[in-house]
Design goal:
By secondary structure, this protein is mainly β. The radius of gyration is 24 Å and the shape is rod-shaped. The chain contains no helices and eleven strands.
Length: 156
């Protein structure tokens, strides 16, 4: 029996090809070498699931499992979320321009997919803030930062 796991958007498209119980390494996309396999103990029970290790954001996409002898195919969409997110760091950025409030800055790194950063007041209302800066690093993870001026509420 032949089993093919592929990503149609890649070239070469194969993530794993198994023929007569042997993996065909030379057909595999180089980015999956040493990272894709089957659950060999489960094959006898009909489990032909793909196992990916060291998953990265670039692995996100549509995967196709195809058994040529049966002409059967199934598509699976993989969504990769980052687990390397840093806790947001809020720092004092100085006085606001009109000197009636303080400027706060928030920054957080390690996000995937791209996050949305919102400032809320103590009652959960959206605050008007400057534009959010979003940077995408070489690891495909996002760092976001934003500033807001918090107005002082003076009461006697």
């Amino acid at each position: 029996m032949t089993l093919e796991w592929a990503r149609p958007d890649l070239d070469p498209r194969f993530v794993l090809v198994c023929r007569a119980g042997q993996e065909l390494i030379n057909r595999k996309n180089p980015s999956y070498k040493g990272r894709s396999s089957l659950f060999t103990d489960e094959l006898k029970h009909g489990n032909i699931s793909l196992k990916l290790s060291k998953v990265k954001p670039a692995d996100e996409g549509r995967y196709r499992c195809y058994i040529p002898e049966k002409d059967e195919e199934v598509f699976i969409d993989l969504v990769v979320a980052s687990s390397a997110v840093s806790s947001p760091v809020i720092s004092l950025g100085g006085m606001g321009r009109d000197k009636t409030g303080v400027m706060l800055q928030c920054e957080s790194a390690g996000w995937y997919p791209e996050p949305e950063l919102l400032w809320l007041d103590g009652e959960g209302n959206l605050l008007s803030a400057g534009p959010t800066e979003t940077l995408r690093g070489p690891d495909d993870l996002y760092t976001v930062s934003s500033r807001v001026t918090a107005q002082q509420n003076l009461q006697c």
